[in-house]
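Session log. Operator J.P. requested a structure for one protein chain; no other inputs attached. Running the standard single-chain path with token output.
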Amino acid sequence: MVGWLDRLQRRNRRVGFLIAVIYKYVDDQGGYLAALITYYAFVSLFPLLLLLTTALGVILVGRPEIQQQILQSTLGQFPVIGSQLERPEQLSGGVTAVVVGIAGALYGGLGVGQALQNAMDSVWAVPRNNRPDPIRSRLRSLLLLFVLGSAAVTATVLSAVGHATASLGWFGKVGVTVATVAINALICLVAFRVTTARSVSYRDVLPGALAAAVIWQLLQWFGANYVSHVVKSTSATNSVFALVLGLLAFLYLVSVTLVMCAEVNVVRVDQLYPRSLMTPFTDDVDLTSADRRTYTRRAKAERAKGFQKVSVRFDPTRETSPDQSGEVPDSQG
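Structure written below.
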């Protein structure tokens, strides 16, 4: 039965591709990569909101309606907490708030950038000696913060457009949704390209960026429903736990989406499919050439110095096809 299923998924490109993406995610310990991104995103979120509301209070003094619109559009990107923190007066402060906000935002924001770079370099199997040094990697993280900050500005513009087109009914809503997905896809496109040391083109990362943008939109809708049906129906004490756990779950799902969509790009670009169906479960398996390339890349990604040579061989006594035995060349140099 297993052999029949294995042959079936090897012949069907779509099924084989899907299984290869899942196996690649497991091989790279994608859940742990996503958890690290989630931690720094959670740490940076509230200081960023504190800094944002304080800045709005200074820049837009006497214009509470504009403050409200900007804050709501920004919080709308995080539906789990948006309805709980939509009033500017709930997050405000003076000099202390600015200091805490900047410190927390830099720590968490740079942490998110570092975690994303580590995740992207891991899924692309970039050797450690080819990854950016601590200074350059943090400069990349600052660039990523700029990209993510542009998302907040874009959300504000789209929110204003949404209010302006409210009279158009469902047609206007569909138009705003399509525009939102398109802009989010553009942001993901840039993020996927700048967060890895691997030389990739925008075309290489386009499928994953489109998938991430669509899933992001679906997660926002799901988060809004979560707030409506769960958080609002709980007591004040339980709502605190629901808020925190809901936010962590939301951020983790977003992180998993980013890592999984990056795996889609890698598997497609490097042709890491089809995989053997039983390869994650046993050594008694006939590896495909995609299996061997995947395991070879993982081993050579541990290279710490440029003058270090990592050679990978598989047992030639195992029964394999002629092009699947012996030493596997390094496709990355």
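Operator note: The chain is about 70% helix and 0% strand.
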